[in-house]
Write a structure and sequence with these properties.
about 35% strand; globular; 13 strands; about 170 residues; four-stranded antiparallel β-sheet; mainly beta; 1 helix
């Protein structure tokens, strides 16, 4: 055993664990991954003079038909567009009643093909048909969450809500 400091400093390095040979090639050096590139393919915005606009888009969801749903926190609604950006309709309106939003943020299409919208300001989760018709408030009450920001769903239909105000993810 080595005990003196000079013996440690002067000690030879241990031999390599394996010597590369034809039968035992050296492992390949790690390769760097190509730089990720992102470029906008298209931009969705209301044309000048349109009856709709996106004031503060917060969330986006796509349905099986390729339609795009955008939650708009400023206008308190969800804008439904075709995949090419053509306006179809607005869903909901600004307010506190069922079917209305104060600050819609996150949204998704659930396993039943319904639009699920999380309202951060009211803490409500609301369900709509893809035609825009209000169906119901999902289980939670306005006091269940405190400024929730995001909602997700798993393959079994279980919802997950990121609740910023309480510092938790509710299931």
């Amino acid at each position: 055993p080595l005990t003196a400091p000079e013996e440690i400093v002067n000690a030879a390095p241990p031999p390599p664990a394996a010597v590369a040979s034809e039968a035992n090639p050296a492992p390949a050096a790690p390769q760097s991954l190509p730089q990720a590139k992102w470029a906008a393919v298209a931009t969705i915005a209301a044309p000048v003079g349109a009856s709709w606009n996106l004031g503060e888009p917060r969330g986006v969801a796509l349905d099986a038909q390729g339609n795009v749903y955008v939650s708009d926190a400023k206008n308190g609604d969800v804008v439904k567009l075709k995949g090419d950006g053509t306006f179809i309709s607005t869903i909901g309106s600004k307010g506190d009643a069922p079917g209305q939003f104060t600050e819609p943020t996150s949204l998704l299409i659930n396993l039943q093909g319904q639009l699920v919208v999380l309202d951060s300001a009211t803490g409500r989760i609301q369900i709509f048909g893809l035609d825009g018709g209000f169906q119901r408030v999902l289980g939670a009450t306005a006091t269940s969450f405190y400024h929730p920001r995001s909602i997700a769903i798993d393959a079994q239909g279980q919802y997950y809500v990121a609740d910023t105000g309480t510092g938790r993810v509710a299931i």
